[in-house]
Prior knowledge:
Globin-like; 169 residues; mainly alpha
Amino acid sequence: MIALTLVRAIERHANELSDELVTKLATSPRTNDLRKVPAAELQRQIEGVLLHLSEWLLTKTTYDVERRYLELAERRASQGVALSDFCWAIVLTKEHLWEFLERQGFRRGPVEIYGEMELLHLLDQFLIGHCALQPKAMSSTASCRMRRALNASFAGSRIGYRLRQRHLV
């Protein structure tokens, strides 16, 4: 799998990437609520995922991923992190990983571009589900509001279709 080379590069630089990402999340106006989370906790969790990204993308079951991120969503909700900030953190994570791969010079030819597309597809499957799982961890009233907001945000898109199929919105 071509994307595995890209994932291994991310895993090798997990510490650097997580430090940069924590800084980016702390300074982004779209992730203000994440400032409620201790920086060391955020850094440790991001680095843990990045260090084992190949395992998360390729070998973990849907149940494993859902269980892990429901726990994380419950934790973030208890810390007062809004769903919008949680989702923006996911978007910024994906952008940060893409920028890293560009800095590493992986964008050379058709094979590398195909590998990047393959990786983006895997990351989308992995990360978008986390936005959808956050409402499950909230109270039923808040969850209902969040589900409606997610449904409106993703209406008509392939992501919205997948979320509806999984009965998450």
